[in-house]
């Protein structure tokens, strides 16, 4: 058994780097920028009014000063003439401010009679003008790699970038193994259950940019598993679920070995998730996850999500940890790093009583994995502990 951190390092060294593709702007969210993108224009392209009001020459701006309103500047159509001494223009939010040194007085501080205005109240210091290029300038760079957020989409649009270079989505093939499994919606036999792991894992990995395929369930026989591996052809990452332990029907290790899998490691000092294996299989990376539903999902969060991120060129790092104070005491940990299902609320973390690795209700109620190092001593309420948010 190897430590979790060592397993993650092995996984990163197996991780392929994927190529790039260009996608329409609206499809770029959640993808990783493949190359630096440069702004095609300056924003705002002109000095723009930040408020509805009146533009006057800055030097003439004082309480009691009066002006003739000689024209209007609206968003989309600026004032084309010249503003002389003692003159003002009506101006609206987003409108270009005329050339020169102006001050926009908001309309709440103005008294107007016909086309004559008076600055009736103190307009304060701010001139209510957004300078040209105050947001960004032509040629400004958004650097790759970067996970594109909804805010980035707005920024890219504003930069007039309609097609975005991103890393292609990792092609992941998921294979559930076991005679006991049927697909959701099917009618299970008396000794059967519904395959859940592939669905939870697809949801998790696709959330991080993958394009995950759920392959037909492999039965507990060599030919069926070989067929499933053949269907995974072309994937960047092939993930099997179940059949990883030491039972007579646990065929993943022998069959993958027969198909040429060069194993990097097998078994981790981790709870849940001990019988994890990984290696290279032809062009693809292969990971064999344990079948217990919580083990599969926890391994997905701890190992597969970082791998999916690294495949797309993001930094190869373990999931981010935070800290919270223990709400109730917990006993000492054993020889495996323990990822305990827990709930964090208002800065306090409560560990669920039942940590059995089959309990999806507990996993679903959890929003955190409390991380217990190997042989961590008993902990009292109030002690600060590390956790990984789910
Ligand atoms: N003698 C030993 N027995 C076991 C050991 C051990 O060290 N010695 N390790 C245990 C641990 S830890 C785990 S974890 C499991 C992992 O076993 P497998 O990876 O071989 O998984 P299976 O036996 O195929 O399944 C375990 C459990 O999970 C259910 N399962 C499997 N796939 C799915 C799926 N896609 N969706 C939902 N549920 C699934 C399966 O029906 C079993 O109930 O081994 C322990 N045993
Ligand atoms: O370590 Mo197993 O992964 O207990 O469920």
TrEMBL record:
SUPFAM superfamilies membership: MoeA C-terminal domain-like, MoeA N-terminal region -like, Molybdenum cofactor biosynthesis proteins
EC number(s) recorded for this UniProt protein: 2.10.1.1
Reaction it catalyzes: adenylyl-molybdopterin + molybdate = Mo-molybdopterin + AMP + H(+)
SMART domains: MoCF_biosynth
Protein's UniProt keywords contain Nucleus: no
Function text: Catalyzes the insertion of molybdate into adenylated molybdopterin with the concomitant release of AMP.
The protein's name in its UniProt record: Molybdopterin molybdenumtransferase
Taxonomic placement: Bacteria, Pseudomonadati, Pseudomonadota, Alphaproteobacteria, Rhodobacterales
Gene that encodes it: moeA_1
